[in-house]
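Write out the 3D structure for:
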Amino acid sequence: MDSLAIETKSLQKIFKNKTGFWQRKAKTTTAVENISFQVGRGELFGLLGPNGAGKTTTVKMLSTLLLPTSGTISILGLDVVKQTNEVRKRIGFTFGGARGLYGRLTANDNLKYFAELYELEPSITRKRIPELLETVGLTGRGDDRVETFSSGMQQRLHLARALLHDPDIIFLDEPTVGIDPVGARELRKTVKELITRGKTILLTTHYMAEAEELCDRIAIIKKGRIVALDTPNVLKQRIGADALINLQVNAESAVALMYQIQSFKCCTSIEVTDAPPFKKISLRTPDPGKAMQQLAPFLNPTFIQGLEVRNQTLEDVYVAIIQGEQG
């Protein structure tokens, strides 16, 4: 389909590692198991999951850095295995961390070097580099050595490098890892700008708020399999639209308070966890106003030390799925 930027079918990656005496035995590890999904052109698609779930392996297969064991990958209608060179001309990618940049070179020199690898015409390079530095918020820093850059600035330079050849699709693997909140906000702003320019972006991240802010749709991977795929709002509905009330309760009075709360008809679930020296009681309710009215007599230091009322978040969904409640 012309509207698709990425399509995978029954994608699988198995690693074989030799172990034992003289490495005679082979141990296999399935990193990605039978996953299929589609990403539309101009879409920002999120890939979430715990460490070791298969996110980076998937991105490396999509970006031609790893061959799949089985299954197919189509990038803008091109087969990743059979048309690798053509695919590489249409994609850009960044991986979290400082690797891939030369610290003793300036930002300009780094970009010039990679422009030569992309075989860009010098006239295009001279025009594009200052434009890209402005796009990623590094105007005026082109002549500074990269070793003087903060982690956030290095990550933005990574993004500029990925954009040198004006790719249609960009893979961002944990782009804000290790970046301070200001730098991460600036990078998210740049990512949003790229979407308005018609780029397709596949993002992996551990930050649920970031995924909820940026992504049109999200796939959650667990043990190499996609266990949920939809828009953030629809995913949040999987565990209900209830509000969440978190109470910090004196341990001595927790049992008495729980007895009272269990009589509240407006609560759909009640959970108690240890939070020394307190107990934490979490209530889910479709009517937080009524729940607060019933809690009012206990809003004193004898029972409740702290209180939080909030709506369900993508993090709640993610935790529920990864811990097996919805998976």
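The chain has a mean pLDDT of 90.
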